[in-house]
TrEMBL record:
<dbReference type="GO" id="GO:0003887">
    <property type="term" value="F:DNA-directed DNA polymerase activity"/>
</dbReference>
<dbReference type="InterPro" id="IPR036768">
    <property type="entry name" value="PolIII_chi_sf"/>
</dbReference>
<protein>
    <submittedName>
        <fullName>DNA polymerase III subunit chi</fullName>
        <ecNumber>2.7.7.7</ecNumber>
    </submittedName>
</protein>
<dbReference type="Pfam" id="PF04364">
    <property type="entry name" value="DNA_pol3_chi"/>
</dbReference>
<keyword id="KW-0548">Nucleotidyltransferase</keyword>
<dbReference type="InterPro" id="IPR007459">
    <property type="entry name" value="DNA_pol3_chi"/>
</dbReference>
<keyword id="KW-0808">Transferase</keyword>
Length: 154
């Protein structure tokens, strides 16, 4: 069952946070699905990841291609077909029903400057913890990521 990590982004960019977390997941041997809500925004993220530093290159592809199942990191709007052990939700994307049960990690990245995104993350926190999932809330308000609270399964 997944550890659900909420990342309240206030200083970093979404692209940098995605690259860092996905890189760590790949280092653990996991495949990653990055789920968004807007194709144009995923195009933007795809471009940012391709333009990143060579030493930290993140091998990835966009959902809908012939090599989806082989992608270590897949960006898309759907459930993904790359057998991901970790799913990253950006821009208000939601977990699929029961999805967390088969994952190692579920990340929820949300923009701390967007009140709607903050409220949506609060609502998702309540539903995730009501399901009895292990959840942590991380904030970078001090300039570095710190865990602010944790709810362990009972």
């Amino acid at each position: 069952m997944a550890l659900v990590l909420f990342y309240h982004i206030t200083r970093s960019s979404v692209a940098d946070t995605v690259a860092t977390l996905a890189g760590r997941a790949l280092g653990a041997g996991w495949r990653v699905m990055i789920r968004g809500t807007d194709a144009a925004r995923l195009d933007w993220l795809d471009e940012k990841l391709w333009l990143g530093p060579e030493e930290g290159f993140l091998p990835h592809g966009r959902e809908g291609g012939p090599q989806d199942a082989d992608q270590p990191v897949l960006l898309g709007l759907g459930e993904g077909t790359n057998r991901a052990q970790a799913v990253m939700l950006i821009d208000g994307a939601q977990p699929l029903p029961g999805e967390a049960a088969g994952l190692e990690r579920l990340w929820v990245l949300f923009d701390g400057q967007d009140e709607g995104a903050v409220n949506a993350a609060r609502g998702l926190w309540k539903s995730i913890t009501a399901e009895g999932l292990h959840a942590q809330y991380w904030s970078e308000e001090t300039g570095r990521w710190q865990m602010k609270t944790e709810r362990k399964p009972e």
